[in-house]
């Protein structure tokens, strides 16, 4: 009880914190079980070709891969507009058999004297990924399930996982999941994970990070429904922090106008972070991360939010700069003679923006 009084009376509450999560889709083909198995089969055929080259004299015949037959079996189903469950399952079973055969041939070549040093670094990594893909797909095929822990959906980017979003148009996205906070229209990237996670578990950590950065707890935390758990509500209440949204339990029959106004105001204020997501995805590159490695992808995502914040800072500097030339009484813009307010990008080589030498507008001869 004493600690609660200290938190209420001794510490200052200031500012508003907005929390939300989003996904940064990666540049991969939409994954299907049949498609990833076909791609894995093709890669193992290339690996067999490379491993067999040094053993041409020792081994008379190259191990059979049945690549032409396997490709025909794949295209027979892949080109159909509508595929039944039985047809798809049968095709996946065939591709699993071809892939198992190729992996066995690779082991036989290694025992015969072939070295993995003949493979490139990419092929070595791809071979390890293919083995995991085969185990996952074989397990799903045998158990007749559609999910498996840490499911691989891309051979070239095995770190990517399916992120269930449940939104209209994009039920599942493939990429990194981000937990983001927004303060005064500046965005802070708090967590990046390739695995799916519940963002409500990070509310305490984000609020504590706010206090560590600014020196005090926020007056209010604006979040959506998933954050409003009983644990988070009690934690915020102990620190005197107001969390947006209705209370848990059955909604009251009579809601005062003041509460309705407060709820509407909170929801409008929370829309700021949705606007930041839209700016990062539509204006910048967050809607499709083109980098391939997990390290470079994380760097690309972080730089995107850095640029979003720099744009906000630039607008503030521009507003401050223009305010220096505003008449405080009339509000009219004072036009200094050395600044061309009619500057046109199409006439970049004709007009000068600033001419400090003559202190007047001039044209380039």
UniProtKB/TrEMBL annotation:
Tree of life domain: Bacteria
Pfam families in alphabetical order: DDE_Tnp_1_2
Domain Transposase DDE: 221-310
InterPro entries noted in UniProt: Tnp_DDE_dom (IPR025668), Transpos_IS5-like (IPR047710)
The protein's name: Transposase DDE domain-containing protein
């Amino acid at each position: 009880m004493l600690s609660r009084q200290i938190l209420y009376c001794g510490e200052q509450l200031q500012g508003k914190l907005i929390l939300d999560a989003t996904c940064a889709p990666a540049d991969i083909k939409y994954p299907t079980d049949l498609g990833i198995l076909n791609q894995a089969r093709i890669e193992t055929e290339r690996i067999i070709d490379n491993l067999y080259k040094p053993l041409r004299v020792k081994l008379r015949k190259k191990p059979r891969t049945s690549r032409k037959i396997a490709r025909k079996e794949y295209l027979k189903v892949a080109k159909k507009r509508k595929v039944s469950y039985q047809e798809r399952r049968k095709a996946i079973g065939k591709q699993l058999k071809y892939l198992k055969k190729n992996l066995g041939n690779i082991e036989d070549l290694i025992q015969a004297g072939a070295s993995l040093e003949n493979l490139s670094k990419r092929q070595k990594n791809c071979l390890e990924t293919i083995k995991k893909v085969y185990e996952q797909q074989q397990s799903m095929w045998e158990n007749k399930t559609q999910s498996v822990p840490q499911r691989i959906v891309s051979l070239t980017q095995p770190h990517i996982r399916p992120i269930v979003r449940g939104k209209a148009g994009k039920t599942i996205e493939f990429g990194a999941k981000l937990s983001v906070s927004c303060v005064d229209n500046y965005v802070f990237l708090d967590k990046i994970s390739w695995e799916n996670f519940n963002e409500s578990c990070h509310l305490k950590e984000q609020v504590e990070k706010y206090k560590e950065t600014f020196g005090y707890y926020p007056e209010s935390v604006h979040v959506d429904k998933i954050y409003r758990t009983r644990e988070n509500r009690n934690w915020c209440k102990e620190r005197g922090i107001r969390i947006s949204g209705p209370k848990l339990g059955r909604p009251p029959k009579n809601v005062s106008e003041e509460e309705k106004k407060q709820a509407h105001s909170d929801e409008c204020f929370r829309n700021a972070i949705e606007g930041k997501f839209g700016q990062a995805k539509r204006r910048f590159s967050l809607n499709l991360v083109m980098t391939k490695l997990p390290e470079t992808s994380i760097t690309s995502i972080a730089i995107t939010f850095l640029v979003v914040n720099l744009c906000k800072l630039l607008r503030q500097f521009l507003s401050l700069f223009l305010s220096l030339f505003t008449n405080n009484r009339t509000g009219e813009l004072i036009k200094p003679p050395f600044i061309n307010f009619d500057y046109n990008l199409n006439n970049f080589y004709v007009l000068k923006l600033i001419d400090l030498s003559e202190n007047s507008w001039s044209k380039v001869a």
